[in-house]
Amino acid sequence: MLRIGLVMLQGARHAHMAALEAASEHSGIQIDVHEIRKLTDLQSYDPHALVLPGGESTTMRLTGLDQSSSLLPGLFHWIRDNPSRPVLGTCAGAILLSDPQDGGAPLVDAMIDRNAYGRQSDSFQDSVFSPLLGREFPGVFIRAPKFTSHASGVSAMHGEEVVGVMSGNVLALTFHPELSGDSGFHTWLLETASKEGMK
Ligand code: GLN
Fold this sequence. Notes:
Largest sheet: 7 strands, mixed
Strand content: 25-35%
Low-confidence stretches: none
Bound molecules: glutamine
Radius of gyration: 15 Å
Number of helices: 6
Helix content: 25-40%
Shape: globular
Oligomer: single chain
CATH architecture: 3-Layer(aba) Sandwich
Mean pLDDT: 95
CATH topology: Rossmann fold
CATH superfamily: Class I glutamine amidotransferase (GATase) domain
Order of helices and strands: EHEHEHHEHEEEEEEEH
């Protein structure tokens, strides 16, 4: 049974849970999903893989730095200390991975610009191509950030725009795969965690 930690700094958990369940069914990999709200949750649950959902990164930083949670920056240290354990960060999750602001190295080797497409009314859906999945994927962009530079692998493109990067097993997407009805990236997470766990 794979232990999947869903980082709960703010909102947006149900869609990720549904996508993880679909990925579990698709891959035949049994999972247990646990919400990670405090640093002690992370330490005691010891997940094989992590999901960092979207939301509002400023709120997420405030929540995570609050003494009642203390999840940040311990979460970033944990990711650096466990490089084989895959991480999927979506939208604001990708912002935190690219710009952890804890004095340490970014978790993906990229720079990111928040709200770079404009306002809420500029949110959109369009097909992206994922070299990681080797196919098209439905991209749901909600007040999405843009990568302004990257030295890491490209995991998704929207036309000429890089919308997904990957450093090691840390995957950062500027869109919301959990809202697309396609569990391809969640399946990648489970399959990678399962392979790493067997080493
Ligand atoms: N606009 C948000 C931010 O800057 C990200 C939006 C999202 O996660 N959908 O944090």
